[in-house]
């Protein structure tokens, strides 16, 4: 964008990086169009500054009144478009002349890159609102990419070479895969992690018995008649009617159902804890705290309960009954 004639309200304006930009659109554009403030006839203090930095960093500008350096593109564009900022190069000024490498670090920062993009848009004479909209979309895309990278990293850490065989083995407890010949071979790999909770020999017998039973066949047939695939939950509900025959299988399926794939549930509990145990409830006992936390975390299940039925059950469980009427 070519430099425009100075608006009348800039007659007393001081072109120095330490001065805030004017608020008017025309005045602000005029100041930006002048580019970085680079006094070349100024006598710098000895062994501190070097004019060659102007050529190396085309965004660098210098404030004579403060004896500090600033980033031109960040100073004029950062407040409008960037989520991150570096006050040293925008407001306070850079004066640590012994660490010139900080200039290169700033040039590689996200703050500087976003501001430089916005400045290039301004030079192409696009409206400010259009520039801000494009930069907001660009930053949103950048955040989404970071989230995807974080999710990918989390999945890789949770399903690494040690965890994957366990999860794969537990997956064979599903009705559609349990009947396969390699089911026990994969399940046995997962069972190694829970030997203290299970009778492995009895579990193996139960698995082979279940594979040849009509119970598993009926579960798959029922799901097929309903035009769907038999689920883990279908088999689990049926097995609960035969606890004497399939006690270890039921226990292993309960372990599978309680294995969290993410830390979301635990984090949710800690978030709720801050709301429940406030300063007004600081004397609450542990049992009541655990009950209230469980009710808060599992609010969706709580809303489905029949309160009248709960009251009746509570009355039936009371050790003493007294007719008040």
From TrEMBL:
SUPFAM superfamilies: Ribonuclease H-like (SSF53098). It comes from the Eukaryota. InterPro entries: HATC_C_dom, RNaseH-like_sf, Znf_TTF. GO terms for molecular function: protein dimerization activity. This is Zinc finger MYM-type 1-like. It comes from Paramuricea clavata. The lineage of its organism: Eukaryota, Metazoa, Cnidaria, Anthozoa, Octocorallia.
